[in-house]
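new request in #modeling-help
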Amino acid sequence: MLAIPAVAGVACLFLSANGARWLALIATLVDLVLGIVLWANFDIGGAQWQFQEHVPLFGSFGWSLGIDGFALMLVMLSVFLMPICIGASWQSITKRVPEYMSAFLFTELLMIGTFAAQDLFLFYIFFEGGLIPMFLIIGVWGGPNRVYASYKFFLYTLLGSVVMFIAMLWMAIDSGTTSIPVLLNYDFPVHAQMWLWLAFFASFAVKMPMWPVHTWLPDAHVQAPTAGSVILAGVLLKLGGYGFLRFSLPMFPEASHEFIWLIFALSAVAVIYTSLVALVQQDMKKLIAYSSVAHMAIVTIGLFAFNVYGIQGAMIMMLSHGVVSGALFMCVGVIYDRLHTREISRYGGVSYVMPKYAVLFLLFTMASIGLPATSGFVGEFLSLLGTYQVSTWTTLLCTTGIILGAAYMLYLYWRICFGKAEHEDVRLMPDLSLREIALLVPMAAVVLWMGVYPESFLAPMRKDADILAARIERAKPVGDSHLMITKAAQPAPKAAAEAE
Amino acid sequence: MDYLASLQLSLPEEILTLGALALMLVAAWGGQRATRAVSWCAVAVLLGAGIALFAAPEGVGYDGLYRADAFALFAKVLIYAAAAVGIVMAPGFFERTSGDDLRPEYPVLILLAAVGMGIMVSAGDMLSLYVGLELQNLAHYVLASFMRRDTRSSEAGLKYFVLSSLASGILLYGISLVYGFTGTTLFDDIATAYAGAHSLGLLFGLVFVFVGLAFKISAVPFHMWTPDVYEGAPTPVTGYFASAPKVAAMALLVRVAVEAMGSDVEQWRQVVIFASLASILYGSVAAIGQRNIKRMLAYSSITNVGFALIGLAAGTPEGVASVLMYLTIYIVMTLGSFLVVLQMRDAEGRQVESIASLAGMATTRPGLAWAFGIFMFSLAGIPPLFGFYAKFAVFHAAVAAGLFPLAVFGIVFSVIGAFYYLRIVKTMFFDDPAPGFPKREGVVEGGLIALAAVFVSPLGYLLIPAIGGASIAAAKALF
């Protein structure tokens, strides 16, 4: 699975533009098929870690891969979005195509590697390695201000990560192992946990991105090509959430408890602040970028709710956001390809000229708002349900943010699709081509699937969420809400499904 | 130990010396025409010396003056390899540069310098240390000013000579102080004296020795000569300066620190930590403003010395092994970068050195640009490239030794360094093409660039067991 993008990535460099396109598409599709096979063979409720492989290299450091339910879902997200990205750049990228495709394939390789890594340093290598192709994608194929954006992206995330690197070194020396499954059950001294937690927080908060270190994201999104934005929003942001889930919570439970106030405060600020900022954006991509920050904040509060609902909700939220925001960026890309502007005011009345487009765009808008029956609802509902048990106030604030979310997304949709088509060129825009439909419809299908029957996504993760919740049980916050949800209410996810 | 056995130990140096002398005669008789032949013969001599390295027994010879151990072996392999590349790089460069020709003295001088560097890393005594150091220095002064008609080159040679002599003076002064207070110049005996109640005078002497060596590795605050000499010297010489002598001086510093002063690491650790952090910070910040690629790489070498010193500051076998690992990866990246710099020409085929002339190289010369991009990312220490493992090794050693502040500051400063490496990548990949470099590189140069690029690519990790094992064995030899 990792070998395919690597080989194809190198091979792409030696091909013509068209050859590279086809090879990349085939390679990513094969990886998607492999991903589905992986999912089918994943033994739900079986061993925590499956499909392990281990080749020691030097000392305890080695090539060691394996996945659990969380990782499986995120790997699926990556392999699902990749062919779509390749398809999205079929026509819009015309210069240096082989290098472009190669960069994407390497990104895919590194992302899958990050999720599947079972060695601390292997994780770091994949985690950081993703910077290089992304830097090139933004810098070479990006918009007019691409150099600034790519630098900002690179240096911001690098600075966040290097501190984590030192923390990893300390962990490896203190515990004598670099194996993640072993470290998950290793108890670090409480005072050290604080420092380690902060070091990891520096990295994941930037990646996530949390307010106030989110400022690289709008720049990077606006300047990146469409497919770059899709990958950035769809998968790279998930690395931060995955990091919290994989490292911060289970490895430093006491420290996580200590810092809940920080996470909740930052997330609550993020939800409201970025929603307000999104409301006044004139640039479509910027608006969606800010909405990403708001949505990821809901993921963080869900994670730090310290209970099964919160964790599952956060995971679903990440998956859903990956698909939905990816789809929204695709929608922006579609009309950008036609008019070459992201200025919202240049559009209007698009629903008359592009009815098919308007329908799909509406679906993704609704999913982003979190309307029941779409994937966004399940994630938000579960996250907030989990949080409500811990902090009523945070939940209240975040729910306000969701209302604001509805406001800016509907406002965006209204300005683009409704009204009169005032501009001559808007009236001439052709509706979706076959290629664009082929890209957007699978995403729409997944969004609905996740909204109507989230069980198929929750099932592989349930056991891991339980393990994680049990692991952090001892540091669980008491909570200010007296609403106690008993074990009888366990099938809450199904309730969510039935809510539609 | 009798004299014959000693001669056996220093077999590589003997081969190099005899080879250099023989080739000098050839050069004297053959003149300009013999350049190419002499160059290839010199490479063959280096290869022979390399084989002799493994054939020669280990041990201590010449009454403790000379040591052939795993540590010296490791350093010498690096030195000989870098010297060979330094010779191979030269002919192409001089062909393209009007004014001066490559004369056959060039490979001979490098061979003599290699002898000096070999003695340095094998030194077991302050005197053999100094003799080796001066032998390589004298050869290097001439190499720096090898382009006789070029004022910058002559300036570089002169600057190098004056400043380096000063540093040698300081070193000698330190040695004399050490001798005065301990009555010996042998490292082992110094170590015995040092392990007891060490007097202020001995400490003074050792600090002076450290200063002299810090100059040779161009650690801040003794780095001032580096950018000027690197810029002025002919490019192949610069590439060679940035690799082989760095390894030799660094290895020598490690040996003095560990063998002579190993019993009390705390005493010199703070000096090393200061030099290390100052080098990383100063090298990174000063490199940002550079327009000349050679100057930029000079600052980059200062930064890299700082990182290698982190490993030394740990003062453990693991730390020493990490220094060797770092040096190995560093010289490959550096030589690779300079080989790329050698390919930079303007439309008439002359050498150019400004960073701006790299613009848009990704479209005009994609292969070269990708290779250079890999070197730059690797120098910045971004995984998954092999340069990351070099940093990993030194930081691991530092954290294991409990030096958290050093590790944290070092790695945060390295982000500043990433900025200017990225600038090169940005110039090559993002900017509009400048008039490209018309001529293609020769087979040898292209092959070497490709080899270096593969080495620093993630494939390099496959070499970790081999290099790591050798470096640990080498480090153990010192403790």
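bot summary: Residues 359 and 427 of chain B are 5 Å apart (CA to CA).
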